[in-house]
Design goal:
The protein is an alpha+beta fold. It has one helix spanning 130-161, and strands spanning 8-11, 21-28, 37-41, 47-50, 56-59, 82-90, 93-101, 113-121. The strands form 2 sheets. The chain has a 5-stranded antiparallel sheet with strand order 4-3-2-1-5, with no helix packed on it. A 3-stranded antiparallel sheet has the order 6-7-8.
Length: 169
């Protein structure tokens, strides 16, 4: 989709009952007219940078037919990873176990699941706030899980490239 100054932009809302917006291109950001471009909206007079998506139509000022972006692919390859967290409380102590399951994926050492734990302990003088203990224990379990995943990624990169690697978190 290429735009020129004066081209009409129509963006249909993804929300039912919300009107479409119409505006004019006032500034292409690239010499070839490729997105993004600055649009002045007819309803408010405001200007904004527009990255057109599948809900945007561009009508050229020269009378050329409207340009409608190609539809996005309907099926994008993906894998679903699940995280389950179990929380156990007893006598001012909270334990959380996080389990990551990646069906069909090798998460290191031939595993398709990783486990990590986190703990929290209430000091004798602290108020009894179970939610705080849960948040701390779960946060620690998830942080350990994330650290392990990043460490595994570093090892996989090093193995694939033959060079030491460091992944920034």
């Amino acid at each position: 989709m290429k735009a020129s100054v004066g081209d009409r932009v129509i963006t249909v809302s993804g929300t039912v009952g919300t009107a479409a917006r119409e505006g004019r291109v006032v500034e292409p950001r690239h010499l070839d007219g490729s997105p993004p471009f600055v649009v002045e909206w007819a309803d408010t007079g405001e200007r904004s940078v527009v990255f057109p998506g599948p809900d945007t139509v561009l009508e050229h000022d020269d009378g050329a037919p409207p340009v409608v972006p190609a539809a996005a692919p309907t099926a994008v390859p993906h894998t679903t990873w699940r995280i389950q967290v179990d929380v156990f409380e007893h006598g001012g102590h909270t334990h959380a176990q996080a389990l990551l399951v990646a069906p069909g994926e090798d998460l290191g050492a031939g595993l398709d699941e990783l486990r990590s734990v986190g703990q929290a302990r209430r000091a004798p003088g602290d108020p009894d706030l179970p939610l705080v203990g849960d948040e701390l224990a779960v946060g620690r379990a998830l942080r350990r899980l994330a650290s392990r995943l990043l460490g595994d990624a570093e090892q996989d990169i090093a193995h694939a490239t033959g060079e030491h690697s460091h992944v920034h978190a």
